[in-house]
Amino acid sequence: MKIIDLHxxxxxxxxxxxxxxxxxxxxxxxxxxxxxxxxxxxSIGAKIGEYIEEINALKTEFSGKxxxxxxxxxxxxxxxxxxxxxxxxxxDFCLFESLDSNKGxxxxxxxxxxxxxLCPIGLAHTDIFGxxxxxxxxxxxxxxxxxxxxxxNFSGNYDYYFDFITNKQKQCAVSESGISIxxxxxxxxxxxxxxxxxVQANELARRLKNPIALxxx
Length: 217
Ligand SMILES: [Zn+2]
Hints:
The protein is of the alpha/beta class.
């Protein structure tokens, strides 16, 4: 089993405390196979070129030791008006956050907007069952149809995770939907890195037997 962690913040994010190098070195030292850097697009702003260049250089430097992916976490409360989705062509993936918040953009509007993105996309820490209830539709089917992956975010900040790890019915629904799944620690500081939980979340993802996001595995 490859250990993946596709959600990490660096100092490019207002709330990140490490450099990308420190995040990657910590992951490599903990036998993580695939690490995704996903800083907030609103924090990066005009430094997006520098950001992509830095992560890509680290990708090359660490190749053979750990797979580094360059991603971005994009807020939807509301959707940024100044973010050109064209940039996503230079990224390995984008995560979208807060669609399940009351202030998050309308899901149908989001599905239109996401067509402009040129890389694989996923939903960060999203309570997909709560969102399905709100829209009175099975959004797992929508994710499957639209090839959007869903993140198991074990940072401890999101209730949906704690519900999901013990809720067999929800686990079955995700399995049967056939959607792709990723795992994310949402690390903002390597001091919070929790190897045990990372492995548990990866094991859960594999037990569900869904494809792993970005065709990892
Ligand atoms: Zn995040």
